[in-house]
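Now for a concrete sample entry.
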Amino acid sequence: MKMNSLGIKYANDFINFVNASPTPYHVVDTVKKLLVEAGFKELSERRNWAGTVKKEGKYFVTRNASSLIAFTVGGEYAPGNGISMVGAHTDSPTLRIKPISTSTKDGFYQVGVETYGGGIWHTWFDRDLSIAGRVFVTDQTTGNVVSKLIKIDKPLLRIPTLAIHLTKDRYTKFEFNKETQFRPIAGLITNNKGENATSEKEEDEKSSSGCCSGEDNKLSTEEFNTIKTVIERHNKQLIGMVAEQLAVDVKDIEDFELVLYDTNKSCIGGLNDEFIFSPRLDNQVSCYCSTTGLINSVGLLPKQTGIQLISLFDHEEIGSLSAQGADSSFLPNILERICQELTKGQSLK
């Protein structure tokens, strides 16, 4: 039995959501666009909310651009009435580019990555990978450092598996070293002068010796005074591609938080179109469903007696203990401020 047209439309809308959201920053940005389109007003944690939160109002707040709380206030809300909440998380298991990622081996440029969350890491081999995240750039007009989202829609990296006839333990389970055998290949080494690639041997030596090379494991004067720039810590061509994508100068890039993602698009599959084949279903399904559910309930606001709220948190995959995680002050603070605004001049029943 084929899916009905309404179900297919909802599934396609979700697929578009996932394809646009390879990182928590993109998830929040995509959710914000949906909320703004539905008439929600953005609030800031840094500003006074006096006179802002009202009955039949629709609002949202973000923290770190990777967590978001949205809520509506029923038209018949009274102090002491309940709050209906749905929780989800914006992050998913992924590979993050290391702070110092430039590396070479056997004639290839490589990019150093680290695992994030509880991923099934062997599934990342032989994928068409690219990069996405946020980049911190100096605005030459104001001198301020601003954050820009980036998503390069082109396969740049690959973690290849070894041909089976070259594999010594071909009949055993697939195991690999995440530090030495889990480095994506980015390109071939040419004779370009000035490329800042670090050999695997040099990288291992630095890792074993730590950041201090002086006597008694103390920083030398040069080490103390020098903080490597982005162009020194990462592949120049990769940084150049990031700068080109953002239409900024390389020298204006201060730092970034980038992860890898599979460039193959999510899609509908199955004999009867009953499946969604997609990455990041954990937990973007809940992010999307809670957001659209909140938006679709807006028409009932005049008769609602409570507060409807969704909370989309970052860092669930690593324990939720950050300033924007579920175990932070984010949700308690927002709930307290909502209740304070709605109870001003009124007494609890």
User: Anything to note?
Assistant: The mean pLDDT is 91.
